[in-house]
Each structure stands twice: as C-alpha cells, then as structure tokens.
Amino acid sequence: MSSLVDIKNVTKIYRTVASEFHALKGVDFHLAKGEMVAIVGTSGSGKSTLMNIIGFLDRCTTGKYLFTNQDVSNLQEKELAQIRNKKIGFVFQSFFLLPRLNAMQNVMLPLFYRGTDSDVAKQKSLNMLVKVGMEKFAHHKPNQLSGGQQQRVAIARALVGDPEIILADEPTGALDSKTGQDVMNLFAELNRDERRTIIIVTHNHEVSQQCQRIVCLKDGKIC
Ligand SMILES: Nc1ncnc2c1ncn2[C@@H]1O[C@H](COP(=O)(O)OP(=O)(O)OP(=O)(O)O)[C@@H](O)[C@H]1O
Ligand SMILES: [Mg+2]
Predict the structure, then answer these.
(1) Are 85 and 161 in contact (CB under 8 A)?
(2) Which residues, in sequence order, are CB contacts of 178 under 8 Å at separation 6+?
(3) 44 CB less than 6 Å from ligand 1?
(4) Ligand 2 midpoint to CA 202 (Å)
(5) What integer is the mean pLDDT of 67-75?
(6) Domain ranges of the chain
C-alpha cells in the first residue's frame, strides 16, 4: 500500500516567555492509503498536537514529516496551505460551520478557496450533501440543524475537495451516543466503499474499536 504519512522522531515544544512544554517527545507514525486509524490517549497526551502537524495546521519542532513520500518538513507556509487545502479534510468536535452560511455554502467553502467555478462548486457540494444524507437541508443555516446534522455537513465539507486524508478530532465528542454511532457508520462506509483514508482522535472506546488500528499516545509518546 502506498504511504501517505510518514512521521519520524517528531517533537513539538510549545514555548512561552516563561516556560516550554514538550507536547510530543519523539513520535513515529505511519499511515498508508485506505487505512482508518484511531488515535487515543488521555487529555493532554498530544493527540490534537499530532493531528495538527499531520494536517499542516502546525509544524513540528524537530523530526521529519514525509507526506506522500515528499519531505514537507521545510516547506514555506504558503506551500503548506496549498497542500492543506487540496489534500486534507478536517472534521472537528464542534463542527466549525460558519453560522451565516447555509449547509450548501458551508460545504462549498474549500472549493471557493481554491477558486473553483461556482456552478461546479455548487454541483459538487450538492453531491456531497446527498452522500451524507443532508440534501434536504441544503438551505438550512447551522442553527437550524441538530448536532448530528451539523456534523454530517462538516463531513461533506471535508470530502468535497476529494482530500487524501480526512482528519477528525473527536468527531463524536459533542454528540449523543446514537448520533455519534451514525457519524461513525458514515466514516466506516466512506472507508469501506470509497477507500477513504481517515484518522479519528477519540476518547471513546466504542469509536476506536471500529477503526482498523489504534495508536495510543501517553505524555507525548506512542504507548
Ligand atoms: N499552543 C499551546 N501552547 C502551550 N501548550 C500547549 C499548546 N497547545 C497544546 N499545549 C499543551 O500540549 C499538551 C498536549 O495538548 P493536545 O491539545 O495535543 O492534547 P490532547 O491529547 O489533544 O488533549 P484533549 O484530549 O484534551 O484534546 C497539553 O498539555 C497542552 O496543554
Ligand atoms: Mg485534543
């Protein structure tokens, strides 16, 4: 299987004027195309830090990051932003939909940032809303949707740009267990039927058990 993420001996130090904090202490992480992996660990163990590095939202302090076999450790911010926009789809615990935009417009956003023609963007967004079962709600604003429905829209937004990886940080954390399971079923379906590569950070044992592989972090190290 082809390699998507190859992280070698990565550290992350958060520095403030008064102190420094070692959030990752030499982490190795490998991800192949088509995998569905859970990252687990107690609060503060470095899960989001690792996800942010994988998703080009932050940089490691030391170590090496190969993305699709390309060394991205030393790329400029602009180049990282381009990779992020094209290759990574994000799903967060609190959905992060823009409140003034309706579901369809929220899904269109990544394409808008890429400069995609608006008719093409609309069609693609509608297709994604169909995929997550939300086409009837295309013109609803986030505050007119339940938590589970908002998360489905957020997943459609993550998928619309056809990313290499979907990074989901506690995607079921704000949902009741039934709705959370619906969201997990959707991820499992995307992985199984479309070979989507997915990383899910979770505290929830039932969620991690539905992934093919579990990576555990403790105090900034793989455990
Ligand atoms: N910007 C920052 N500046 C300083 N310290 C930070 C910063 N971001 C995170 N940390 C610290 O790094 C450690 C790891 O944080 P991280 O957010 O990766 O944890 P996590 O495993 O995602 O936790 P949770 O399950 O609570 O989301 C924590 O101790 C946190 O306080
Ligand atoms: Mg976190």
Answers:
(1) yes
(2) none
(3) yes
(4) 9
(5) 93
(6) 35-59+76-222
Cα of 19 to ligand 2 centre, how many Å?
21
Pocket test for ligand 1, best of 48, 61, 200 (most atoms within 8 A of CB): 48
Phi–psi pair at 219, nearest 5 degrees: 50, 40
pLDDT value at 163 more than 80: yes
80: phi then psi, degrees, rounded to nearest 5? -65, -40
User: Closest Cα to atom 18, ligand 1: which residue?
Assistant: 46
Residue 1 pLDDT class (50, 70, 90 cuts): low
Ligand 1 within 6 A of CB of 23: yes
The tokens describing 178, both together, are: 């039934």
Would you state the pLDDT for residue 215? 97
Quote the pTM value. 0.94
Q: Please give the mean pLDDT across all residues of the chain.
A: 95
Q: What is the pLDDT of residue 52?
A: 96
Q: Is the pLDDT of residue 93 over 80?
A: yes
β partners of residue 214: 38
Nearest CA to ligand 1 atom 28: 44
Identify the CATH number of the domain defined by range 35-59+76-222: 3.40.50.300
Cα 50 to middle of ligand 1, angstroms: 10
